[in-house]
Amino acid sequence: MATKHGGDIGSRTLILDRKSGFCDSTSTFYSKREPMAFPPNQFLDVTTFISSQPHSGKTVFVDAVTGRRLSFSDLWLGVERVAGSLYALGVRKGDVVIILSPNSILFPIVTLSVMSLGAIITTANPINTPGEISKQIDNSRPVLAFTTCQLVSKLASAASNSNLPVVLMDRNYVPRDEQVKIVGRLETMIETEPSEQRVKQRVNQDDTAALLYSSGTTGTSKGVMLTHRNLIALVQAYRIRFDLEQRTVCTIPMCHVYGFGSFATGLIALGWTIVVLPRFEMAQLLSAVEVHRSSYLSLVPPILVAMVNGAKEINSKYDLSSLHTVVAGGAPLSREMIEKFVESYPTVKVLQGYGLTESTAVAASMYTKEETERYGASGLLAPNVEAKIVDPDTGRVLGVNQTGEMWIRSPTVMKGYFKNEEATAATIDSEGWLKTGDLCYIDSEGFVFVVDRLKELIKCNGYQVAPAELEALLLAHPEIADAAVVPIPDMKAGQYPMAYIVRKAGSNLSESEIMGFVAKQVAPYKRIRKVAFLASIPKNPSGKILRRELIKLRTSKL
Question: Which residues are listed as membrane-spanning (predicted)?
């Protein structure tokens, strides 16, 4: 059965398959969702857009540890005052401001203030090493940093050569001997009416709003430029998908696109109350759900797996009766795991989704309980998303139920990689198609299934790990002749990095020594968890590591 479909596809009338959304004439899958509406004003920043959204919410943020609350009026007054203070410090449109902080009810005030000026917020992961943060600072060249007392020494080490001015996010912290230039306190900014009148610069929807760093297969972390239009599109996708004025608990890192998109932008526009945990701790998470009567939870698969494994104790200890929806993202969940979760928590539905940092975390998603019953799927294409399935070897465009690399085109696709035109051109073609690097197929009902990763990235606890980055570290060891890194499956984390090592002649380098060498230089999620020794690393004639052979070898040994 086919149906005519027009809308925003263009002036042509296309004939689409009613069930799959596939069009033979364009070899393209079109979203079956109702399209999103976009504000006509080209000169609009995402902060102004979010603050203008109608809802009846009262409290926006609650600190799960201290109980401190922020109302929506507190939030927007704070954003206005902090923006004024930043302007007084010289922050202008196009400047980059970095935030290095765990989850906090003040985190969104910083990000929304920066973006309201037309400046660019870049988020650094607080568990990253000073070396990793230093690379981000060197690439993004921020004019100002926000951080906490626990992280100020790490920032000082990372920014040792840049004399980066710092605003402290703690209320009563007195700096010690850290070599940083303290220029203000966030709490003071929030409480003080700026003395200088701010001249508002016009912000175009196509201007960069956020710079989020994503691992690449080369091992070089790349800054993903997300525009105000990208983030407005994310907000609109949330408005279609979720109810207004719900309650949730934030345990996903706000520095990551999943947490940034949900808790620092999207859900604010819906009038939600967000209970913030500084970091994941299962007992605190479950207590927060019980005490604050959370209706939704956004989780990565390892947390969901832990809830399944501890279901008996959890159900006896905590009242989770308010919870009706878990939103899962970051990596695919197996049919078996979803079935076990629903069996353990029968009143809760699991809405899966699929997206990338490069697509503002939006590509495919589930809306309803009926859609959750399509086990193994990531949902239907999100509103306004178009997709192609492309044979990675021949470039031929495929159809329904055929597996290939998924390409997507949508208002959420990034502007490009910061200061990296070569990588941008390799990822987004001249027609705006983003090559996801994921092997997928779309079935006869329009559901997206992620089969495998064409890219070599390892997904550990929802984070991306580039094998090439770890291989470069390993090859710097004086007793290692060659190295290759592949994923090893794990029930809790999803995957961990495993290293195959060729020792130099005469070396007795041990597994624990190698793991310790890497652990000192990388964030915890990048650490090597298993080492095997080989006489040589299998490679093709051009020298490319044959990871598939190593994965087969790993599987046969397990």
Answer: 257-277
